[in-house]
Amino acid sequence: MGELRKEIQEWTITFLEAVVLFIIIGIFVADVRMVPSASMVPTIQIGDRLVVEKITHRFWGLERGDVIVFEAPDELGMRDDLIKRLIGLPGDTVEVRDGRLYVNNQLQDEPYLAEAIAYDFPAVTVPEGKIFVLGDNRNFSYDSHEWDCIFANIDDVKGKALFTYWPLDRLKYWK
To answer: Domain 32-167's class?
Structure first.
């Protein structure tokens, strides 16, 4: 009987250690997300599940083109986190002219778009501490081009999309 009790105790301790490790990873290292909207189609489909890593952007910063998860700006009155593509960093000038995206007057190559942009957006310079974001489904995404506040807070970025893990046929790793 003592042997069984010891084995149960060891399994319980191992289980509790695994739970604590899982919680620590979820808080500090990575998170899993289910995408509820079509704003990132075709890159990410409705219902795709992805892993968001929370560390590298804090040490090495963000780059244009990163797919990020961030808190919606307070001005939007939303409580949800959003997932969008990072287009402009502080100091960048962003513009959509003749249905094409320009950052710092450089035409952007966007092979991930399924269709041409059907709107124009006047040139804006991204303020310090802010970012400009767009969904890959440009014509049907609620993002910087439609928000009255235009920009999201760079400090509200929670992480970068690392890879899609579900469904398996859409498994994809991002840089």
So the answer is: mainly beta
Q: Give the mean pLDDT per block of 10 residues along the chain (175 residues).
A: 78 74 67 89 94 86 94 87 96 97 97 92 97 96 91 94 89 77
Does 158 participate in catalysis according to the annotation? no
Q: Are 83 and 33 in contact (CB under 8 A)?
A: yes
| Among 163, 159, 114, residue whose Cα is nearest residue 136 | 114
Q: CA of 111: how far to CAs of 42, 108, 114, 136, 166, in Å?
A: 11, 9, 8, 10, 23
Compute the distance between CA of residue 56 and CA of residue 62 in angstroms, rounded to an integer. 8
Q: What is the distance between the alpha carbons of residues 94 and 46, in angstroms, rounded to a whole number?
A: 27
Three-state SS at 169: helix
Six-digit token string for 39 = 């704003």
What is the residue extent of each domain of the chain? Answer: 32-167
pLDDT at 32: 84
Backbone angles phi, psi at 130, to 5 degrees: -125, 165
37 has catalytic annotation: no
Please state, as a whole number, how many other Cβ atoms lie within 10 Å of the Cβ of residue 99: 13
pTM, two decimals, is 0.84
Catalytically annotated residue among 54, 84, 130, 160: 84
